[in-house]
Structure formats: structure tokens, C-alpha cells
Design brief:
Elements (H helix, E strand, L loop, with lengths): L1 E5 L4 H12 L3 E6 L11 E4 L16 E4 L13 H19 L5 E7 L14 H20 L2 E7 L1 E3 L8 H11 L2 E4 L5 E2 L1 E3 H11 L8 E5 L6 E2 H12 L4 E4 L18 E2 L9 H10 L2
Parallel strand pairs: 1-2, 1-4, 2-3, 4-5, 5-6, 6-11, 7-10, 8-13, 11-14
Antiparallel strand pairs: 9-12
């Protein structure tokens, strides 16, 4: 099948693109800018190169996948307008230009885009942009004749993750013996290895069901605190992490009691990498 992936060179996107190319699919990755180096197993081009919305356009794909996302951070602050552009406007335009009647759309949503699991209850520009794209897909899938699988993620981890994310930051602090500023650490987490996410996304592409829009969550609903995560890493590494508890405030979207999950788990969900194994892999990485 011909598959288009927005965010193909990102953390999840590269894993998914490599998987699908390895299965023999014709994968085209799309990025914001011209890639400086082409991947070995699939071709990448800038999203601006998509030519239009003609009914018989050669840029219509069998499957269109959006795994692109960007939020504002201290190291890379973005305006609310830019966050909306990255999480709603660009993915929407990509989906419209790359799809046609009968296309399967797979969109990566984020569970925490809706505080307390309540649809539309967003607390920041990132969540609002992601939810706006979800709303667009819910409203337009049947109108435009494509099928949408909206797949909600909690937190992905694994080799290749951004170094400023929580798990890589804790691993780095453990290796270097440096202090790491943290919240009080009582918020709940749920981690799924990037290879398991790619595996579940890949399996979902084989669906033959007739539907216009459907959503599922992609994780096991077993949660643990940041403090428990620190303890797990310390046990694997056999070192103590110098955690500066309370040096950072809690984020506005964080969960302290399990929220309602207003959707079903993805059918035939697989999580083959236990958390301890995934953390050990990161600790052993050179």
C-alpha cells in the first residue's frame, strides 16, 4: 500500500516508517522542511510539496498517518498561534491534500489533551490544537469519504526520545550523578515503549471494517507515580538519583487520580516490552 506519514523523522514516526517500509509498503515521509539526509528505507519530502486536492491526484495515498506534534517548552518557546499551527493547521492541510475517498486516516492524539478525560476540556494551546484536529476528523470523515482511526497515546519512551523528556532526563541524571529538579512526584504516569506503539499502529492498518470515525486508546491502564519511576530506574542502575523534589511545579494537565477513559482500548492491543526491560535498554545505551 501507498502510505504517507507526517512526522516521519520524529521519535515515533521514524520507528513506524521503518516498520512499514520493512513490511514492503511504499512509504513516503513528510516533514516541515526538505530533509538534509534521506532515510535508507523510505523517501522523505517536505509537506509543502503536496500538490492539491484534485480528485484523481497522484498525491492521494491509501493510508495517511499523522504522528507530528509540537508543544512549547522552556528551551524552545512557541506562541499559542504557532502551537496551533503545528498541531492543527499543518496536519489538517496534510490530511486533506494526501487523502481521497476511501483513504484510511490514522491520527495520533494525546490522552492528556483533554483534562480529566473530558472531551473539549483543554488546559493549554497544545491540547486545544490536538483536540481541534480530532474535532475536524470527527466532523469531516464521513463528509469527505475517508475512514479515521484516532489513536490516543499516554507517554511514549525508548531510545531516540528527546533528551529533555522525563525518562531520558532521569537516565542522564543517574549516569552523570547530577541533580535533577522535579515536581513533588505524586502525579500518575503510564509508559509504553515506542516499538509497541509502532506495532499497534501497524496492526491497526489492516482493519477492513466500515466506519467513518473511530477512536481507541493505546496503553495498558496501569499507572504509577514519578516517584515509583525513579525507584525503578535506581533499582536497575544500582545508583541513587539526586532528585530535587519540589523544585519544579506540577504541570496543569497532570493526573493524580485515574481519569475516565471515554473510549475502548485498541483491538488486539500488544505491549511486548515490559517497563523494566525498556528502562534497562535505555540505561545500557552508549
Amino acid at each position: 500500500m501507498r502510505i504517507a506519514i507526517l512526522g516521519a523523522l520524529g521519535f515515533l514516526g521514524r520507528e513506524l516508517s521503518e516498520n512499514l517500509a520493512g513490511l514492503g509498503h511504499e512509504v513516503t515521509g513528510f516533514t516541515l522542511h526538505e530533509p538534509s539526509v534521506q532515510p535508507e528505507n523510505f523517501f522523505c519530502r517536505p509537506v509543502s510539496s503536496l500538490r492539491g486536492r484534485e480528485v484523481f491526484s497522484e498525491d492521494h495515498f491509501d493510508i495517511v498517518i499523522n504522528v507530528a506534534a509540537r508543544r512549547s517548552t522552556k528551551s524552545n518557546p512557541l506562541s499559542d498561534a504557532m502551537v496551533r499551527q503545528f498541531n492543527f493547521e499543518i496536519p489538517r492541510e496534510f490530511i486533506l491534500r494526501a487523502s481521497g475517498p476511501g483513504t484510511l486516516i490514522v491520527n495520533a492524539s494525546t490522552y492528556i489533551q483533554n483534562f480529566e478525560g473530558i472531551d473539549g476540556n483543554t488546559v493549554d494551546a497544545y491540547g486545544a490544537g490536538k483536540q481541534e484536529l480530532t474535532r475536524f476528523l470527527m466532523e469531516e470523515s464521513e463528509v469527505r469519504g475517508f475512514r479515521t482511526l484516532d489513536l490516543y497515546l499516554f507517554t511514549i519512551y525508548g531510545i531516540g526520545d528527546r533528551p529533555n523528556h522525563l525518562v531520558p532526563s532521569l537516565i542522564s541524571a543517574a549516569k552523570k550523578g547530577e541533580g535533577i529538579p522535579l515536581s513533588l512526584g505524586h502525579q500518575l504516569l503510564n509508559l509504553i515503549h515506542v516499538s509497541d506503539v509502532a506495532r499497534n499502529f501497524t496492526n491497526a492498518l489492516s482493519t477492513k471494517d466500515e466506519f467513518s470515525y473511530r477512536r481507541h486508546f493505546v496503553w495498558r491502564d496501569d499507572y504509577f507515580t514519578v516517584r515509583s519511576l525513579v525507584s525503578s530506574i535506581e533499582s536497575i542502575a544500582q545508583v541513587s538519583i539526586d532528585c530535587l523534589w519540589g523544585e519544579r511545579p506540577y504541570a496543569g494537565h497532570e493526573m493524580f487520580e485515574p481519569w475516565t477513559i471515554p473510549m475502548s482500548q485498541i483491538p488486539f492491543f500488544e505491549a511486548q516490552v515490559p517497563l523494566d526491560e525498556g528502562l534497562r535498554e535505555l540505561w545500557s545505551e552508549k
